[in-house]
Amino acid sequence: MARALVVLAVVFGAWPLAGGALAKAPPDSFADLAERLTPAVVNISTTQTVQRSNDEAQIPQFPPGSPFEDLFRDFLERGQGNQAPRKVTSLGSGFVIDPSGVIVTNNHVIDGADEVTVNLSDGSTLPATIVGHDPKADIAVLRVKTSKPLTAVKFGDSETMRVGDWVLAIGNPFGLGGSVSAGIVSARNRDINAGPYDDFIQTDAAINRGNSGGPLFNMNGDVIGVNSAIISPSGGSIGIGFAVPASMVQPVVAQLLKYGETRRGWLGVRIQSVTEEMAEALSLDKAKGALVAGLTDGGPAAKAGIKAGDVVVRFNGHDIADMRALPRVVADTEIGKSVPVDVIRNGQTKTFTVTVGRLEDAEKVASEEDGGTPQGSKTPAKPAGTKSLGLTLSTLTPDLRRQYNVPEGVKGVLVTDVDPKGPAAEKAIRPGDVVVEVAQEQVAKAEDVANKVSKATADKKKSVLLLINRNGELTFTAVRIG
Predict the structure, then answer these.
(1) How far apart are CA 330 and CA 332, in angstroms?
(2) 364 in helix, strand or coil?
């Protein structure tokens, strides 16, 4: 019976798994799919003019008055003066999404280019104009004028892709024609620190130099990603490639085509991850959500009543599992839309209505903070020790502000010493840091900190949450009570 099951599975394109489940058999060939899709993949050639400059640092150091100094300088100036600005060329890939001549590629393929040329699969060459580009998602949209409709492909649903699904990567790296490689989805939701919205599809399909900007297809022939990066010590594929998912690419492309720029949602918060230690200090049942470490004055979140120390767990109907999820969900939200935001504050869930702003507008506003020079001086307060945290603290005075370069507007308690073997040292707290809050309550004196820590100890807390100001940057840190 088992043998008969195997035979039937092969005949009907499936393999038996444990528990009687059936898995799809690998395709016999990708030839039909490659033949249909390759004409839509193009080669992109860019030219950039690089200005030459005289580099005085290249002149060797000679003894004062040496005749060789003037001789060497004259030699360099004559040689460089005769050299014109040089042109640098680079190659990448792209794919047609509209028969009229709309092409998608990576931003880094065309970044800084003076001229962009598209080489089609039939050997023809067309000049291209840049419709718009987005460095954050590493996506660019080009347009070419063509006398005939081009072969185009469409986006698919990248969210339905599972680890282990077959994918096909097609590029046109050197203008020689399509280059096809096959593999599987190795992982989802990869963060490689390439940008604020990292959510890459990882694949073992070979992606080599010049394949950037090419499409990653599913077995239906739909684009589920744009090949963007690889990890490799040699520059060649070692089976670790990354593609921007179609779910992120599509809205960016739509905005670039409509506005020539992106229009992302903005909440006006600075966030950080919630660790297990922080979860206990924040009265959370588990580490989840995005911890609000700071807010932009007058920003959407501040106007709605959200405060530093709140943990965002739901935004506009989307659960926020971790810090990385919030920026992506906010960015995809319609600007000007009022949405519900659920936060946990002091163990209680509160809901605020936030009107989403525009990220690009916020980025254009220059925010400067003046430190101010304190005038006058007073006798420094005697430092107080908080032994259970491994900290020595002092109430801020004009002299201490000057000594540790703490701006006048910063309020809190100054860290003057840290026990190298204490819990605070484990969290990289250092002298000059200012403790602004303890257990989400503001502190003004060293005694305030000691009292809050004593209360946390009495409540049998294993750690206490500190809000630290370091050079104007606010960060929550859960410190173990030693």
Answers:
(1) 5
(2) helix
Whole-angstrom distance, CA of residue 325 vs CA of residue 59:
52
Whole-angstrom distance, CA of residue 159 vs CA of residue 199: 11
Strands 413-418 and 166-171: unpaired
User: How many other C-beta atoms are found inside a 10 Å radius of the C-beta of residue 297?
Assistant: 8
* d(C-alpha 466, C-alpha 322), whole Å: 20
Q: Does residue 469 contact residue 433 with C-beta atoms inside 8 Å?
A: yes
Q: Which CATH class is domain 266-364?
A: mainly beta
Q: For 85-176, where are the E strands, in sequence order?
A: 86-98, 102-105, 115-119, 125-134, 139-144, 166-171
Answer whether 26-52+84-262 and 384-480 agree in fold.
no
Q: What angle do CA 164, 169, 175 make, to 5 degrees?
A: 170
Catalytically active residues are: 108, 138, 212
Q: How far apart are CA 351 and CA 342, in angstroms?
A: 4
> Do 57 and 189 contact (CB within 8 A), yes or no?
no
pLDDT for res 481: 85
Q: Taking the model in full, what pTM does it have?
A: 0.69
Q: Which CATH class is domain 384-480?
A: mainly beta
Radius of gyration of the chain from its Cα atoms, rounded to whole angstroms: 29
76 and 54 in contact (C-beta within 8 Å)?
yes
pLDDT surpassing 60 at residue 47 = yes
Residues 6+ apart with CB under 8 A from 122: 39
**Matching CATH number, 26-52+84-262, of 3.30.470.20, 3.40.50.300, 2.40.10.120, 3.40.630.30:** 2.40.10.120
Backbone dihedral region of 92: left (phi > 0), alpha (psi from -120 to 50 degrees) or beta? beta
Instruction: Tell whether the model's pLDDT for residue 207 goes beyond 60.
Output: yes
Residue pair 241/121 in contact by the 8 Å Cβ criterion: no
DSSP state of 479: E
Q: Exposed, middle or buried: residue 38 (CB in 10 Å: 0-12, 13-18, 19+)? A: middle
Give one word for 248, left, alpha or beta, with left for phi > 0 and alpha for psi -120 to 50: alpha
pLDDT digits (tens, 9 = 90+) for 95-145: 999 999 999 999 999 988 889 999 998 888 999 999 999 998 999 999 999
The domain spans of the chain are: 26-52+84-262, 266-364, 384-480
Q: Which two tokens stand for residue 15?
A: 């393999």
What are the backbone angles phi and psi of residue 294, rounded to the nearest 5°?
-165, 160
